[in-house]
Amino acid sequence: MNNSQEIRAAIEVENLSKRYEEVDAVDKISFTVQRGEIFGFLGPNGAGKTTTINMLTGLNRISSGQVKINGQTEIKKVQEAIGIVPSESNLYPELDGFENLCFCASLYGLKKGVREREARYLLEKFNLAEVGGRTFGAYSKGMKRKLTIAAGIIHKPEILFLDEPTTGIDVASARQIRRLIIDLNRAGTTIFLTTHYIEEAERLCDRVAFIVQGKIKHLDTTENLLDNVRQDNIIEFLSDKKSLQDKETILKKLSAYQVELFGEKIRIHIDRKTTINKFINIFNEIDCNIYEARLMRPSLEDVFVKITGIEVDEMEKDKAKGGR
Ligand SMILES: Nc1ncnc2c1ncn2[C@@H]1O[C@H](COP(=O)(O)OP(=O)(O)OP(=O)(O)O)[C@@H](O)[C@H]1O
């Protein structure tokens, strides 16, 4: 690794492993997170995401390998530079929201005036001002998650670790949290997050590592991962039953393409450069009515399934119970 890479790297991981008695929870993983990135660790239950994040933040002992945060191997020396948001909240149920935030800020040595000001600011920013005086134990799941994130950033860390930030919360709260993550990143925070929601990784992350059974199966920019499957674009035309009666003529006219006809729909597999004008002309020639055209873009989900062979429903169903 050359010097310029070293300066830019927020997190460097080399051959990191964690072995529990029976299980290689994390098995010789290596990756680097650059300053200013949102880096996602995507994998099914039990893949090793939490174990990894815990080793990166000093909460779990490393079996072998090396972690550097801001070039430091000793986590204590960079404690103030990092913020940790665990998947299960670590806040005190008997303290109210404001007190919890002030307490976390005191752990980082913030003075009373500063921590109270920051706590008030964050309660406001996270739409929790009204419940700032309510005990944490009485918060809803979404409120708890937001306050836990607020607690993780009260000391303005350079690098934020988020373990499953939107698991088990409703759609609106999940969307708000994603917005907050993007805002934090735009303000300069490097983000390392774990998720088993592919859509979340696609929306948020600059780069994504697929982790399965403790190993990184693939690591690339979200753009490159999507490029893997974008050659397989499909355009779907909505027609009507009468227009689609003469299937043979339609298929003959479109014989240069892979075509599927079903119900009132015509699906045509195209490459990225194909425009839809030519199809409209063809449909006009054969008196086929078209009411709607829709480009069906493949998603990160398609890439994930292609690379790991894991069906997404399997991966997401266990944790989907709480709704998002
Ligand atoms: N304290 C422990 N003792 C023994 N095995 C453990 C321990 N913690 C985790 N494991 C095992 O290590 C593997 C990885 O677990 P980990 O919690 O890191 O996965 P994960 O990807 O975060 O999963 P999830 O999405 O379900 O939280 C699993 O097989 C798990 O059973």
UniProtKB/TrEMBL annotation:
Keywords: ATP-binding, Nucleotide-binding, Transport. Pfam families: ABC_tran (PF00005). The keyword NAD does not apply. GO terms for molecular function: ATP binding; ATP hydrolysis activity. SMART domains: AAA. Residues 11-238 form the ABC transporter domain. Signal peptide: none annotated. PANTHER family: ABC TRANSPORTER ATP-BINDING PROTEIN, ABC TRANSPORTER, ATP-BINDING PROTEIN. This is ATP-binding cassette domain-containing protein.
